[in-house]
């Protein structure tokens, strides 16, 4: 018996809408976390660096194994941006300092396990709140990462143009060394 959900999953228009909605939800989550830890121009630069993975989510794949692999890689990619944003936001709130500032680097280089334990005991509430934000973002991204496009149905021309422009813009971002240095994995 064909259920309504099965019929909707076989409908290319519905499948494309679900993929676009999932991509938008992940992009909105990334935007929210990036805004917490960055300012003005860097927000746009980081979104451009995150865009190729989101465009990959919209690319149709038929193989269930490849779909699962894509979902996991997209989640890992997005979580790099989430963790970067959360750590930067915590440091900005607590110390008005960036993670690469001399204050943060010298403090982390000149500490031992006992001092780390004391620090966590002192700041456990703030660490719990920021960790909760990262976990919530991770759960939301995991939920939507599985909803990438599976059908190999033809995309409308405007959608292909948007995907191509996104990939082109992301490629330009990765070609620029100052932009690449902002990427959470490279940072």
What does this structure look like?
The structure is a single chain. The chain is mainly alpha-helical and 187 residues long. It has 9 helices and no strands. It starts with a helix and ends in a 7-residue tail after the last helix.
Summarize the structure.
By secondary structure, this protein is mainly α. Helix content is 79%, strand content 0%. The model is unreliable at 1-8 (pLDDT under 50).
Spans of at least 5 consecutive residues whose pLDDT stays below 50 are: 1-8
The total of helices stands at 9
Order of helices and strands: HHHHHHHHH
- CA-CA gap between termini: 52 Å
- Portion in strands: under 5%
Biggest sheet descriptor: none
- Over all CA atoms, what is the radius of gyration? 19 Å
The helix/strand class is mainly alpha
The number of E-state strands comes to 0
Give the overall pLDDT as a whole number. Answer: 80
The gross shape turns out to be elongated
Helix content: over 70%
């Amino acid at each position: 018996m064909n259920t309504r959900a099965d019929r909707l999953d076989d409908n290319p228009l519905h499948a494309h809408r679900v993929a676009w909605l999932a991509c938008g939800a992940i992009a909105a989550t990334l935007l929210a976390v990036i805004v917490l830890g960055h300012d003005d121009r860097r927000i746009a630069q980081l979104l451009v660096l995150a865009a190729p993975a989101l465009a990959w989510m919209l690319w149709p794949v038929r193989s269930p194994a490849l779909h699962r692999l894509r979902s996991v890689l997209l989640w890992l990619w997005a979580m790099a941006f989430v963790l970067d944003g959360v750590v930067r936001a915590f440091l900005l709130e607590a110390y008005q300092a960036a993670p690469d500032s001399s204050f943060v680097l010298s403090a982390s280089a000149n500490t031992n396990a006992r001092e780390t334990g004391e620090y966590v005991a002192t700041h456990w509430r703030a660490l719990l709140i920021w960790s909760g934000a990262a976990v919530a973002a991770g759960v939301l991204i995991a939920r939507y990462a599985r909803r990438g496009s599976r059908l190999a149905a033809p995309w409308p021309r405007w959608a292909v143009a948007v995907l191509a422009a996104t990939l082109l813009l992301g490629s330009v971002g990765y070609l620029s060394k100052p932009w690449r240095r902002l990427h959470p994995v490279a940072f």
